[in-house]
Structure formats: structure tokens, C-alpha cells
Design goal:
Length: about 270
């Protein structure tokens, strides 16, 4: 008796813009496929919001199913597969009709082509919960952004409680202030004013703010000073090249003059 054919599976993962470690999902998907003895035909991923229609890789997966190129589809979570609960259910139902098995590894969902109505009911509830969770996350993010903008408008700054820069963070509404002219010259001076070591870009930015030149980010100061240094170096090279050409031209003229004097037909005789 021949060995049974291994099921061909596609691992699909939509990488959210908030994901910090998408490789974790890929590793779990591959482990789940190996545990079930599946043959991984492809690992396909794309970055973007699950609420958008423009998901070319997702469409590619569905086309592979329609061409009967795969036997199963593994995803990390339901909300990484569909835009809404209705969208998830519609596409899983299409996969079931095509004879493609659908598995969500972290939620214990395994929809086979011959699944009973209980599986469909469970899937409906979980898909609705995933959609609700995504909408709540969007609402919380929107509220936080509105609160930050309101605080900046009232106080000129906002306070962040996360990340390495905890504390008061100055943020100005509108277009950022351009570091140029006298302010740029002062930034260059401040950078070189350290007693033994150069001041850090953060220290230069704070000093500019304290002196009333404006509020700048350290990255903004660093880029402006480096651009100024690059422009100065380019100008110096051009000026050096011009001086070299000028000196060479003067030397050539002197050589011609000396040559003409040496070939004087009169030989200097009266």
C-alpha cells in the first residue's frame, strides 16, 4: 500500500502595522503545519490594515484555492484573514465548498469540508468577537490621538507614558520649524562647545530651545548640521579644484613665455 499523500497547505499572515514581531506568527504557523504533517506549499504575508479591500496576497491565496492548488489554509488568527465577521464567514464557506480545510492555529478552529453546524456556529461567534475587538482598538486609538492634539493645543506639549522617552514631550502643531540661518549657525557652535567631547544632538536641541531659537527634535538638528557640513565640504572641494586649475593655467603661460624667450632669433644680440 502506497504512502498517503500529504496535504498541501498555504500559511497566510497579514502583518498589522502594530505588529512588533511578525516572525513569531510565522514560526507558530510552521510549527502547526509540521505537527499536522502538512506539506507547506508557500508562506505568504502582507502588511496593511485588515479593514482595507486592497489585499493582493489574500486574493492570491483564494485564487490558489479555486485552482485546487492547496488542500488547507493556516492562519494565525481570524482577524488576520478577513475584514469583518461576514467577510470571514463568506470566504471560509467558499473554501469549504472548494474542499479546502481552514485552520486558525491560536484559536483552535479547524473547519473541514465536512464540518458540522456546531463548528460554523462557533466560527460565527469568534469572528464577531474579533471584529468587535478590532473596532474597539480603533476607537481607543482615535480617542488617544484626539486627546493628545487637544493637550498640545492647550499647553504646547503632551505627556507620553510609553517608550524610552517617558515624560514631557514638546510637540508643535502645524509645519515643523526649519533649522536654518542664524539658528543653524548657533547649532553648529553649540555642537562644538563641549569641554572635552561634543555635545549630543539632544543637548544642542535643548540649548536652542532655552536660547529662544525654537523647539527642534534632536534628529532634526543632526540632519540640518550634517547637511550644512556636507554642503561646506562640497563647496571647499569645488573651490580647491578651481584654484588648482587657475594655478596650472598660470604655470602654463609662464612656460610658454620662457620658451618664446629662449627661441628668440636674434639670440639677444644687438
Amino acid at each position: 500500500m502506497g504512502q498517503a499523500r500529504r496535504l498541501r497547505v498555504v500559511l497566510y499572515h497579514r502583518v498589522s502595522t502594530r505588529d512588533q514581531h511578525p516572525e513569531l506568527a510565522e514560526r507558530e504557523l510552521r510549527d502547526a503545519a509540521a505537527l499536522r504533517g502538512f506539506e507547506v506549499a508557500a508562506y505568504l504575508s502582507e502588511t496593511g490594515s485588515g479593514a482595507r479591500n486592497n489585499r493582493p496576497v489574500h486574493l492570491q491565496v483564494m485564487e490558489m484555492a479555486r485552482r485546487r492548488e492547496i488542500d488547507a489554509l493556516l492562519v494565525w488568527k481570524l482577524d488576520r484573514f478577513g475584514r469583518s465577521s461576514l467577510d470571514v464567514l463568506t470566504q471560509i464557506e467558499e473554501l469549504r465548498r472548494l474542499g479546502v480545510r481552514f485552520i486558525s492555529t491560536t484559536q483552535g478552529i479547524d473547519v473541514k469540508p465536512d464540518s458540522d453546524p456546531t463548528v460554523k456556529l462557533t466560527l460565527t461567534v469568534l469572528a464577531a468577537c474579533a471584529e468587535f475587538e478590532r473596532e474597539m482598538a480603533i476607537e481607543r486609538t482615535t480617542m488617544a490621538i484626539d486627546e493628545i492634539q487637544r493637550t498640545i493645543g492647550e499647553k504646547g506639549y503632551a505627556v507620553t507614558r510609553r517608550g524610552p522617552n517617558r515624560g514631557r514631550v514638546f510637540q508643535k502643531l502645524g509645519r515643523p520649524t526649519t533649522l536654518e540661518g542664524k539658528a543653524l549657525e548657533r547649532a553648529i557652535e553649540l555642537r562644538a562647545e563641549g569641554a572635552e567631547l561634543q555635545r549630543s544632538w539632544g543637548e544642542v536641541a535643548l540649548a536652542l530651545s532655552a536660547e529662544g531659537w525654537g523647539k527642534f527634535k534632536r534628529t532634526q538638528v543632526a540632519m540640518a548640521v550634517r547637511r550644512a557640513a556636507a554642503r561646506a565640504a562640497t563647496l571647499s572641494q569645488k573651490q580647491g579644484a578651481a584654484v588648482t586649475v587657475s594655478q596650472k593655467g598660470t604655470a602654463d603661460e609662464g612656460d610658454k613665455g620662457r620658451g618664446n624667450g629662449g627661441s628668440d632669433p636674434s639670440g639677444g644680440a644687438p
